[in-house]
Amino acid sequence: MSLSVQPKASLFINGAHVEGQGTELPVRYAFTGETIATLHEASAEQVAAACAAARAAQPAWAAMAPVERGRILGRAAALILQRNDELARIETLDTGKPIQETLVADWPSGAAALEYFAGLAATLTGHMIPLGRDWAYTRREPLGVCAGIGAWNYPSQIACWKAAPALVMGNTMVFKPSEETPLGALKLAEIFMEAGMPAGVFNVVQGRGEVGAALVTNPDVAKVSLTGSVPTGRRVYAAAAEGMRHVTMELGGKSPLIVFDDANLEDAVSAAILANFYSSGQICSNGTRVFLQEGIKENFLARMAERVKAVKMGDPLDPDTNHGPIINEGQAGKIRAAIEAGQAAGARLVCGGAGEGAFIPPTVFADATDDMAIATDEIFGPVLTALSFVDEDEVIARANGTGFGLAAGVFTQDLTRAHRVIARLEAGTCWINTYNLTPVEMPFGGVKMSGLGRENSAAAIEHYSQLKSVYVGMGGVDAPY
Ligand code: NDP
């Protein structure tokens, strides 16, 4: 069966498929290395044309009744769910992630975002403020054209998570997926059109970092929402600041997962598996620093070593596979270098290691120290670093001893301790006795270097809207002369 998933054209601008005029962009299937599509980057003129189309479409889109905008998003969600099998296959070919995951996690989570914000559409109002004789009110207004820039780990989910709150508020969007995974956003653009979205409301441009940079500094763009690494986030935030643009930054992390002695051992091991090895570890919120209290440490490591033996690495399109390849050779090389550095630094390799080709098995280091690179740097691969601790104050200080602040998790049966510890952790998204669940109802985002702004939930609306205050004079106007 051919793996070709060549789209009609590389870009989607103003309701039409348009071929890119820039450099070639081959799309490779991480499992076989086969080229499954060949796209072309957008030229500078095409980036400008996409922004101009989004700008032209915005007033009419914003003038539509909110419930009508919501209806279109709702129809798009239904189309996604109907076509989930086909879309999941494309997502697997684009990312290399197991079909077992893409069927349940990627597009379904994107559809949930569209459904959630569709439902919220008619509730997005301002406030009436009594002032005695006079009064005031606020109008919640869209920002205008929003630029969305995505990472390669959850390309379609990221596109939906950004588009749903932006569009429901009456903004329009130009989205640039990662050059590694350009296919999902094009599918989303087609589905939006089929759902009745007017031309120009959602546009897709392709390209590497320079295309993203051109988008961020385009004068039509009022807001930039990036999912990516901290270094890229810094650059994009700085470029956006020059035009006083709003930003949402969903960046990387090195999140702590703290396991106290009284934790349910099997659940804690399950959570650590999900927190480190799902999507072959290519998840920003992963709990890659696993702090184990002395009393549970060796049992935890023994169970982990036992349980990872059941991993099934292999063909991502095989429904039994639960561990896929790394997105590309360059990224696999970086992960291998991090594993070598961990061994060279003297950490104990409990299981896993360099692997072969595109595959890196679930890898667990124990007896690491806080200053080792495997405990300080985001690896973005299936590498768990276990650290041991004795008491609560100590582990909180050490968990917070990082520039990142995306996520954190605590495992304990002690109710008060769970909430006490969570309250003191410097992280935007936390879990108690579970890990990495990100339902659309719950705000998602980071603190410190891991970013700003929130995606999902009603909180996301604040980051795609601005308030206009209107003072209403109800009597005469007194002036001094
Ligand atoms: P990158 O930071 O390398 O890239 C992110 C996006 O930004 C890509 O589309 C990239 O384009 C683009 N880009 C690169 N340079 C610029 C620039 N100067 N101006 C505008 N856009 C630019 O991240 P990765 O794609 O490698 O993704 C991995 C990172 O993303 C990890 O650090 C991970 O933690 C983080 N991440 C965060 C999430 C969160 O929600 N907090 C979720 C998922 C990932 P191109 O790739 O085409 O060069």
Which helices and strands, and how do they pair?
Layout: E1 11-13, E2 16-18, E3 24-28, E4 35-40, H1 44-63, H2 66-82, H3 84-95, H4 99-102, H5 106-120, E5 128-131, E6 134-142, E7 145-149, H6 155-168, E8 172-176, H7 183-194, E9 202-204, H8 209-216, E10 221-227, H9 230-242, E11 246-250, E12 256-259, H10 265-276, E13 289-293, H11 294-307, H12 329-344, E14 348-351, E15 363-366, H13 373-376, E16 383-389, H14 392-399, E17 407-411, H15 415-424, E18 429-432, E19 451-452, H16 459-462, E20 465-472
Parallel strand pairs: 7-8, 7-10, 8-9, 10-11, 12-13, 12-17, 13-16, 15-16, 17-18
Antiparallel strand pairs: 1-2, 3-4, 5-6, 6-20, 11-19, 14-15
Report on the architecture of this protein.
The longest helix is centred in the first third of the chain and has 20 residues. This protein is globular. With 481 residues, the chain is of the alpha/beta class. The strands form five sheets. A seven-stranded mixed β-sheet has the order 14-15-16-13-12-17-18, sandwiched between helices. Strands 9-8-7-10-11-19 form a six-stranded mixed β-sheet, sandwiched between helices. It has a three-stranded antiparallel β-sheet with strand order 5-6-20, with no helix packed on it. Helices cover 38% and strands 20% of the residues. Bound molecules: NADPH dihydro-nicotinamide-adenine-dinucleotide phosphate. NADPH dihydro-nicotinamide-adenine-dinucleotide phosphate (NDP) binds next to helix 8, strand 10 and helix 9.
